Task: structure prediction
Amino acid sequence: MRIMLGMILRTLYPILLAMVLLALLWPVVSEPEPAGALPVQGLLVGLIFVSVYVLSLQAAIESMVLKPIRRVRQMLRDLKSGDSVSVSDLKLPGEFRHLASMLKVTIGELYISRHELARLRESLENQVHDQTRQLRVSNAKLQNIFESASDAILVVDPYQSTVLKANPRAEQLLGGIIVELGGCTLSHLCQDVSELESLIKMVIGDGKNQVCEFCFTDASGQPLETQISASLIEYDSHACVMMLIRDISSQHNFERALRTAMTATADKTGMDFFEVLSKSISQILDVKYVLIGEVVEEKKDRIRSLAFCVDGKMDDEIEYELKSSPCELAVKGDGPCVFAEGVSECFPDDPMLKTLGIESYLGIAVHDGFDELEGLITLFDDKPLVNPEFASMLVSMFSKRIGAEMERRRVDLESETFTQELLEIKNQQHAQTMELAEAADELEWARQQAESANRAKSEFLANMSHEIRTPMTAILGYAELLKTDEEIINCPDRQLETVDTILRNGEHLLTIINDILDISKLDADCMTIENISTDPVQVVRDVETLMRGRCKEKGITLTTEFQLPLPSAIVSDPTRLRQILVNLLGNAIKFTDAGSVTVKVSHRGPTNKSCLCIDVIDTGIGMNEEQLGRLFHAFVQADTSTTRKFGGTGLGLTISKRLSELLGGELAVVSTLGEGSCFTATIAAGDISQVRMIESEADLAPLPKIEPAPQLSPQDEVSLDDLRILLAEDGPDNQRLISFHLKKAGASVTIAENGQIACDMVQAALQQCEPFDVILMDMQMPVLGGYEASGKLRRLGIGVPIIALTAHAMAGDREKCILAGCDDYLTKPINRVELVKACRDWADHVRGDAA
Result:
């Protein structure tokens, strides 16, 4: 304002000066002019003044306005080009100088602001470009998600209930009815849309997401359980509702199946848990085979079944080799091993898959809490697996429970063992604590037990001594009479009677020894049992014939009843069956003084698992409950009075019971004191489906007649005339007896007192080209025993037949002799006929091979 006021005053100053000068000079120069004449002088003066004024005004404007403006413009150009400008160098008036300084500051700030704005604009444009690109990518991703989503997605107009947009999963899940979106409403998707409309109203009303479960109908017309999540979105500038529809049918089926299996196994543990679970999984998944197994600890290359369900039923325990099988993949993998079909083609070397015709397989390894392999749960079928995802989910869920149960089972076993050990320690401590206090009682009890054992030992030894000495007394006594009694010596009939008595008592003594050997064999589990075709009727008839004379001597009746039909043959051991019957009938006859003894033979059971039952019923003394309780103990009879009155070793019933068990049956007894007893022996008869059955009495074998044993004529005797036999025996009596039998048969006999002499004699005979035909070798001799001598001869390459002679008659003794180098085996006491026949057979055998 001040600058403009100064400029106006400088302009008006010359004008005022000119007007004053004109006023002072006007009267002097002016002359009267005619009326109407122009004031020429005045006009001239005015023009002069005007010119002067214009020039002054121009000079003033030039100096005061234009020059400062040009300087300011130059300053602006310099500022624009970036040059530094000093306001004092412009030589402007004071007002313009101040204005130029302000303008310079303002223009500098504007220039800086313009560059900042340009930079901001460029940055904003870049951001807009990036946001636009990201928006395009995001829209593409959203579209891709929308198109490929595993859940059905519908965009619905909330006011028209019209489907505006749907993804492919919606068309697949709900059927092909959403192909044309125009005109497709919710009523096309379900019959009752009231629940969906209520859901939409809730979303529109409060703008919050809503979730509910709804049942649609799928493309096949089956109910489809879904979960709908509805939310409010903007679509085409309109408020719409987006429905996210998830198929939860499998989830519900899984939950129901899981609930069923959990309910079935809720109160089960151990083996019951594995069996019930395998049955539940087989039923839920409709598979034929379900196996829950544990790895075999040695190499962990096999699976042993804990539960094997086949068609809903438990099968026998199996072991399954992992190599070259799908189970090998399952135990090595981290998750389910699934072959929905074609598993047998993938594993052609797996015998079980090929045998069962397996088509589908699913297996999952079972681990404990330390991730150590415990076992395997596997299911397989002869048809393709219908829903492998659901089956994998269900089996995976129970694999952890199975692992926990396996670990619990192992821990329980370990805990039980540990508890038992602690209990034993506690009992030991308790026993040790109470030991001093109860020392006197224990010593007394020990003394009583020792006395009882001594009494039992004394009674047994006395009983055995009595049983052995009784026949020995007869044998020695009658042998002495045969030697010294003149009446017997001079009477051949009395001699035969005496010899018969000696033989009878010798056979009785041999029976006692055989009983002791039999019970020893049974105790050592060395009893040998044959399984051959046996005629049960003939065996019973033979024993009946053998025992009928004893019954006649005691005046009692022996009756045999065959309850038909009976098999004509069974698979058993006839020798042991006869031994059982002889013992039972012998006992019955021994303890029956009046009345009868009855044998009843019957057949029971199906043809493939039948058994023969033999009842031996007597009217004897009977037994009470106490006596029955200790009846089958070895060396025990009903009581000591029984032993004193009736004799016997007390081994017969024990042997019979254990032989019955070895023959696949048992021995039972029912008895009443003073009335009698009934012993029932059952033995397995084997498969008799192809055996002829005895239907009538006429088909039964008749009771054989007792006839004297035929005497062999001299021409029927086996001859050893051409044989040279070496007898290696250290006992003089046995030397004389055996050599007597051999010489009587015609053999030439050489005797060696021990095994070393026998070896020397054999070698010497070979050097003289007169080899022995047979060697009879006693197995226990001084210097060199029979086992060592036989081995030495075989090592020397000598092939002469060696027949072992030994008193050892236990199981395994024959094998021991054969291994030592012997060819055959005979037991003492020697049977003359068997001895002669064995020598003849082996000599002929060697000569036949040489020929």
The chain has a mean pLDDT of 77. The radius of gyration is 64 Å. The longest strand covers residues 223-235.
